[in-house]
Design goal:
Elements lengths: L1 E7 L5 E7 L11 E5 L11 E2 L5 E2 L10
């Protein structure tokens, strides 16, 4: 089993992370692709991942006002 990012075909946004064997029982939703990210634990939803493999982390949440 490996970790896969579910990536939007239109925006390259990582919509979620799934654990999958890469072969059976699941296909990514329409308009998305599954990308094996097992060697990249830093990849997370909200970031982007291009087809060329370039990852951009999501923006951190804004600081809370005191």
């Amino acid at each position: 089993m490996a970790r896969y990012a579910v990536v939007s075909e239109s925006t390259d946004a990582i919509e979620g992370i799934v654990v999958w064997n890469g072969q059976t029982g699941w296909t990514p939703p329409d308009g998305t692709r599954a990308v094996d990210i097992d060697d990249h634990l830093e990849y997370q939803p909200g970031g982007t991942l291009t087809e060329a493999g370039d990852y951009t982390a999501p923006e951190p949440p804004p600081e809370a006002e005191e």
